[in-house]
């Protein structure tokens, strides 16, 4: 392609409402333009990258044996009513009425539609397992669309759905999809982590999110520095640093602590190491627990994890913190003076609290704290659970190393759905025993357009985008100097353009006859991974100038070798 | 592909609500399934063909220099209000509201969106001409969706839009698109005609429809048997068979014609040749004509063309036939007794009427007709216009031969829009003279999903679909006989499958081990153009059995030659 036929639409100014770097760079590089809030037009340059990601996704899904279909974007309400989601989905579901006043929605996902198809098309266990997928436009009416295509309302998604006779078959396919996703993001040239998204209660559903690592990511993920373990930071299991509490060295003392209401007061006012302070947080108890309130203990330097707390059988869901009034009525002291010793309500300790010795905590009397407390000696050992959010440096739950915290952008999500939709829609097949068996399902999504933005968040610098070659809009920028003045430059450039194209390399020839600085800046902004400059001076010695997008220096390559040299370089890039 | 991995989803029964053959065959061959009225899911088999059509369209658009973009399906009402279409589009426009109660629509077309993009991105004449296109899902809320994907509500469309400094540039691009469309439909293996869709008033817009010829087509088109001339039958110019009226041979006679109210009565009751009868039809006149009514004359065997009549300056638009009451009040006779002689209202004659001699017509008195009338001799020569619809056998307007009438399915439409949208949206560029110049536009659509249905309407037989090879879901069906019993058949089939695949041929290997009749019927229904049968008997002589989808007989091909033989055959097919 030549810029005369494939115009560059770069912008010099940084658009005011673009908050994150990928949004800014996609606008500046002429990849997208905003139509309305959360609605973007893909310009030719951006669409080339989008189509490359799409092609990689399609190839790997096909390779994994998935069958491509194309379902309508507009979906009848009846199926959503059957699944119960018409009522429960909320305002992200764009509901609409046709001319006959029948209810439809613009599909944000297709579980209902594919399950309806499956119940009609799948009759026998012999047709299982089967995976259907599509690459299609979705709509989610985000309350605050932002970050360009990262959190757009209309977006391109690959959604896949698998059907099985039993959960063993689902598990096998789930694993296959997990591998396909790893291939996809690897081929896109992205650093990513599959992250356990829900450790779940026993027998619950398994789910993994695929995160592209980037400092700007909205999600914090915890991953092991010595193994494959990775989980959403909210869900990662917190392991105490020691297995057992050290032996007591202090005696228990009840002291007056006027004005001490926080851990900070205790640490600074009484020189307590924060690791040996205990916070007591009171929440509403589950009705069946026999108590109105329950206390949760975490170390002073740890954070209560609300997601984990809410899953405890003793705790009411949704989780609700007790009011000061409720606390005073039940315990006789305010929230700043609570502690596990002589506590008149049930109490659950985080695993790290259970291995803490010589600790300080409130005495359940206003203005008094206990110091030098030790389990068993001074108060009974409490029920123990995982109540806190992991921190950088914590032991990895798989015992392999330490947890590190990184930020990630969710670009994929795989999920063992089980029978949720097949039960609701009565999707069954005849099993081997001839009896109707409810289908078991998995679903597997990739935000295709989001992958493009995530790739930029991970790969950019001050000058612009630094595309991984596999998803770059072009592989090579060919920049002739003084095209209008030098016949020799023109001739060499045209020859090189033909030779590179014939070698199957995607070249963008900048034939604008612009100043070198303008061309360099545009090609760096757009992020083309390889740059060849053709100029009279280098041609004198039979050379052209090469610079990789991430290189600091240019290098001279003999013109007759450059095509072979680039082919080798390009095809070697992962 | 193997049927074990790419399951066949054929149906034996003909679905009850499928009215046309392509709809029936697409359902039976397992290409599509209905989700709701006018909404279809493309199954894997159907999607393969859809994607092939899409790929051909994309290649030819790219080759013509068009730039691919992707605009949102959901469009803000504001732009449609700017163009005026928010009010005028009618209920086919699917209007919707987002969670903030802002108005949007699901785009049935994208003139407003692309013009909005153009006014932002195009600044100078140097950027012109430029063509943008997209291949995207559209929605038109048809009042009565039917015929499967032929007239669906949600469908896949290629829409392109070109921008120009002047109409000369538009005309050149229009011609280029005309050629690209011809390449596309030729490559799809379809018999088609580009048809002039609007002969238009002078200075008006030029437009061509591309029709796939098929007896089931909804549109009648008139085309010349000796030239490229083709037009929608409603718009084709009607030329009289003779240039001048023959000399009179009869005298004018006023006769009592009790009970004669129709041309049929006149022909049968008074032995008049129908070609020498004249119908007088009275319509409301244009207000500025000075008369309330105007009479239109066509020969008894011709049909008044309402589209042509409405365009006459004397006729009120929209066209309205006069009531009997109005006619009696103005003329003093009923509609069955009208004629041009002594008619008290203005009168316009079709060109064929103007060259008719010795004709009969009503006498503007109930129960009386004139016979043997001749222009000039018996009544003044009237104003003449083209008022009738052409018939098979009429002279071609270009003077080259005779018109034939065929039925067609509209699959493409190209249109010289001019400044309609660019004026409304104030889309200008700086011209060479430095002054703001309103953009001139063209638009160019192809119903990609409709092409699939139209191809079937044109290519099918009793057994099923007969795909043109270029858009067949697979090129070759490989059918082993008694796969489960014959090791030799299995071995030969697997070898052939590998060799055909390696040669770049798309093979569907039916490894169901079904009966021959079942496999033959399925592959004929699906319409795979070439069939290879591997069986023990033929293998004895080193042969496999070949049959083209349209062949009556099978032929034996030496197994070691069959790959090369097929490659030659497949690549020779246009």
Automatic annotation (TrEMBL), chains A, B:
Biological process annotations from GO: prolyl-tRNA aminoacylation
Judged by the first EC level, this protein's enzyme class is ligase
Q: Does the keyword Nucleotide-binding apply?
A: yes
Catalytic activity as recorded in UniProt:
tRNA(Pro) + L-proline + ATP = L-prolyl-tRNA(Pro) + AMP + diphosphate
Could you tell me which InterPro entries the record lists for this protein? aa-tRNA-synt_IIb (IPR002314), aa-tRNA-synth_II (IPR006195), aa-tRNA-synth_II/BPL/LPL (IPR045864), Anticodon-bd (IPR004154), Anticodon-bd_dom_sf (IPR036621), Pro-tRNA-ligase_IIa (IPR002316), Pro-tRNA-synth_IIa_bac-type (IPR004500), Pro-tRNA-Synthase_IIa_type1 (IPR023717)
Please, which domain of life does this record's source organism belong to? Answer: Bacteria
Family label: Belongs to the class-II aminoacyl-tRNA synthetase family. ProS type 1 subfamily.
Concerning HAMAP family, the annotation shows: Pro_tRNA_synth_type1
Tell me the protein's name: Proline--tRNA ligase
From which source organism is this entry? Thiocapsa imhoffii
Q: Which gene encodes it?
A: proS
């Amino acid at each position: 392609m030549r810029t005369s036929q494939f115009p560059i639409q770069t912008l010099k100014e940084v658009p005011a409402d673009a908050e994150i770097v990928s949004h800014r760079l996609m606008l500046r590089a002429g990849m997208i333009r905003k139509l309305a809030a959360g609605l973007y037009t893909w310009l030719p340059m951006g669409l080339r990258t989008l189509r490359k990601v799409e092609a990689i996704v399609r190839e790997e899904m096909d390779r994994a044996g998935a069958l491509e279909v194309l379902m309508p974007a507009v979906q009848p309400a009846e199926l959503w009513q059957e699944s119960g989601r018409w009522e429960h989905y909320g305002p992200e579901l764009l509901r609409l009425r046709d001319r006959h006043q029948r209810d439809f929605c613009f599909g944000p996902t297709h579980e209902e539609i594919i399950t309806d198809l499956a119940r009609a098309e799948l009759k026998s266990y012999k047709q299982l397992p089967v995976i259907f997928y599509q690459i299609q436009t979705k709509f989610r009416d985000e309350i605050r669309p932002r970050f360009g295509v990262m959190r757009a309302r209309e977006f391109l998604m690959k959604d896949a759905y698998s059907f099985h006779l039993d959960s063993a078959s689902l598990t096998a396919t789930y694993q296959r999809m997990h591998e396909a996703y790893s291939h996809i993001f690897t081929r896109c040239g992205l650093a990513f982590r599959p992250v356990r998204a829900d450790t779940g209660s026993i027998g619950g559903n398994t789910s993994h999110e695929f995160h592209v690592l980037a400092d700007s990511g909205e999600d914090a993920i915890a991953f092991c520095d010595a193994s494959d373990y990775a989980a959403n930071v909210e869900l990662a299991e917190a392991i105490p640093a020691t297995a057992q509490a050290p032996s007591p060295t202090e005696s228990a003392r009840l002291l007056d602590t006027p004005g001490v209401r926080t851990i900070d007061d205790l640490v600074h006012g009484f020189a307590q190491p924060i690791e040996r302070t205990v916070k007591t947080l009171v929440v509403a108890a589950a009705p069946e627990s026999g108590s109105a309130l329950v206390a949760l203990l975490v170390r002073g330097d740890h954070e209560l994890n609300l997601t984990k707390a809410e899953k405890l059988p003793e705790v009411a869901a949704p989780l609700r913190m007790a009011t000061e009034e409720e606390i005073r009525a039940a315990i006789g002291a305010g929230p700043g003076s609570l502690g596990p010793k002589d506590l008149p309500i049930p109490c659950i300790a985080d695993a790290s609290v259970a291995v803490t010795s010589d600790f300080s905590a409130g005495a359940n009397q206003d203005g008094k704290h206990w110091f030098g407390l030790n389990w068993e000696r001074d108060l009974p050992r409490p029920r123990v659970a995982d109540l806190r959010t992991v921190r950088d440096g914590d032991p990895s739950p798989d015992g392999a190393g330490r947890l590190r915290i990184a930020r990630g952008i969710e670009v994929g999500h795989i999920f063992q759905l089980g029978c949720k939709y097949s039960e609701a829609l009565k999707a069954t097949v005849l099993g081997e025993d001839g009896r109707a068996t409810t289908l078991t399902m998995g679903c597997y999504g990739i935000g295709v357009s989001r992958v493009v933005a995530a790739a930029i968040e991970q790969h950019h610098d001050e000058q612009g985008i630094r595309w991984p070659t596999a998803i770059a809009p072009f592989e090579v920028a060919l920049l002739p100097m003084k095209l209008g003045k030098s016949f020799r430059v023109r001739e060499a450039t045209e020859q090189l353009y033909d030779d590179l194209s014939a070698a199957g390399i995607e070249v963008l020839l900048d034939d604008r006859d612009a100043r070198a600085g303008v061309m360099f800046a545009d090609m760096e902004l757009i992020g083309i991974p390889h740059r060849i400059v053709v100029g009279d001076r280098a041609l004198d010695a039979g050379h052209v100038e090469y610079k990789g997008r991430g290189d600091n220096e240019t290098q001279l390559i003999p013109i007759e070798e450059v095509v072979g040299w680039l082919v080798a370089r390009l095809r070697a890039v992962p």
